[in-house]
Amino acid sequence: MSNARKTVLTAAGELFGHKDPSAVDRWVAADYTQHSTLAADGPEALRRLVAGLPEGFSYEGARVIADGEPGRPARHVPRLRARPSGRLRRLPR
What we know:
Layout: H1 3-17, H2 23-27, H3 43-51, E1 64-66, E2 74-76, E3 81-82, E4 88-89
Antiparallel strand pairs: 1-2, 3-4
């Protein structure tokens, strides 16, 4: 499994599987752009979204598509990008 794939799966699992708002500090870049209408852009909005996930919410990753080249994006649902720094941001469409 590529590093990009591991990064994306770990970050999404911590954020949405474990509902851990502190994972934002470990994985999300300051210029994070949110693709969902559920939250605004930026780490703080994502932190609020994760903190407010309702009781009974469950997360299951649908897929990860990782490009084999270093520094290339890994795609996941939700669409996040693994940067060389290990932080994530939205992929361009």
